[in-house]
Specification:
The strands form three sheets. Strands 3, 4, 10, 12, 13, 14 and 15 form a seven-stranded antiparallel β-sheet that branches. The longest helix is centred in the N-terminal third of the chain and has 20 residues, at 2-21. The protein has helices at 2-21, 115-123, 147-157, 227-234, and strands at 29-30, 36-38, 42-47, 52-57, 59-60, 64-65, 68-76, 79-95, 100-113, 128-133, 137-142, 169-176, 181-191, 197-200, 221-226. It is an alpha+beta fold and 237 residues long. It has one domain. The chain contains four helices and 15 strands.
C-alpha cells in the first residue's frame, strides 16, 4: 500500500511539474463587438472610352469591392489597438493558363494600428484629405470558416517577429457638404528598388494607381456615401 501511494504521489508531482513547464504566450484578441460598421457605399467608375459612369453597390467596376468595412479594437499585453477590417470578394481560376473554373471567395484585409495615430490623423483633416498610417501589421486572409475563425488565425500571425511591415495604409476622401455626400477610397503602397513608396489599389500593374492621392481620383473612381454615414464610420462616432 505504501509503495502504491508513493507511485501515485510521484506521478501527480510529475504532472504538476510538466504542466508548469507549458506556459502559453499571450495572444492578441480582437473584440467580439464592432466599434462601427459601414455596410453600403456606391462604387463609381468613369469609362473614358464611352464617357459613361458605371455605379454599383460596394463595387468599383474592375478596381475594388467590399462587402463591409469594420473598426474593431484589438488588445495585446494590456494595450488597446485599432483594427480596420475590409471584407471583400476575390476571384481566380483554378486553371489560370486556360482561364477555366473561375471561383470566388471572401477575404478579410486587416490593418492593425495605433489607435492614437489614427484618431489624431483623422481629427486633423479638413474636407479634402489623404491620411497616411503606418500599420503595426496588415495582411489579407481567406474568410473560409467565418470571421471569428479568421480572427483567431490573425491573432496567431500578429506581431510575428519574422514579418517586416512594409506597406502603409491610406484613406483618401473629399466631403461635399452642399450635396450631403463624401467620396473616398482606401489603398496601400509598395516600395520600389529606389525605396520610393508607390500607391497601389490591389495590383502593382493597375493603371488606375497613378490617380491615387490626386484630385484626378474624383473624376475617375471612388466610393460615395452620405456625410452622416462617412463621419460615423471614419470618425468612430
Amino acid at each position: 500500500m505504501r509503495q502504491f501511494l508513493l507511485i501515485i504521489f510521484a506521478f501527480t508531482s510529475f504532472l504538476n511539474i510538466s504542466a508548469q513547464d507549458r506556459v502559453n504566450k499571450p495572444l492578441p484578441t480582437i473584440s467580439d463587438q464592432t466599434l462601427v460598421v459601414l455596410n453600403k457605399a456606391l462604387g463609381c467608375y468613369y469609362f473614358e472610352s464611352t464617357g459613361q459612369w458605371q455605379e454599383h453597390a460596394n463595387n468599383i467596376t474592375g478596381v475594388d469591392n467590399f462587402t463591409k468595412l469594420e473598426f474593431r479594437e484589438l488588445t495585446y499585453l494590456g494595450k488597446t489597438y485599432l483594427v480596420l477590417l475590409k471584407y471583400y470578394i476575390q476571384g481566380d481560376h483554378r486553371y489560370p493558363t486556360l482561364k477555366l473554373d473561375y471561383r470566388e471567395a471572401e477575404y478579410i484585409r486587416f490593418y492593425a494600428m495605433e489607435k492614437e495615430d489614427y484618431l489624431s490623423a483623422i481629427d486633423e483633416c479638413g474636407t479634402d484629405c489623404v491620411i497616411r498610417i503606418k500599420p503595426i501589421y496588415s495582411t489579407s486572409m481567406l474568410n473560409a470558416f467565418g470571421p471569428f475563425a479568421t480572427f483567431g488565425r490573425f491573432s496567431v500571425d500578429f506581431f510575428d517577429a519574422k514579418k517586416e511591415q512594409k506597406d502603409n495604409m491610406y484613406i483618401q476622401f473629399k466631403k461635399y457638404p452642399e450635396k450631403n455626400i463624401a467620396r473616398f477610397i482606401i489603398y496601400t503602397d509598395w516600395k520600389n528598388s529606389r525605396n520610393e513608396y508607390i500607391p497601389m489599389l490591389n495590383k502593382m500593374s493597375d493603371p488606375n494607381n497613378v490617380k491615387l492621392g490626386t484630385e484626378e481620383l474624383y473624376t475617375s473612381f471612388y466610393y460615395e456615401t452620405t456625410l452622416d454615414s462617412f463621419d460615423k464610420f471614419f470618425y468612430l462616432k
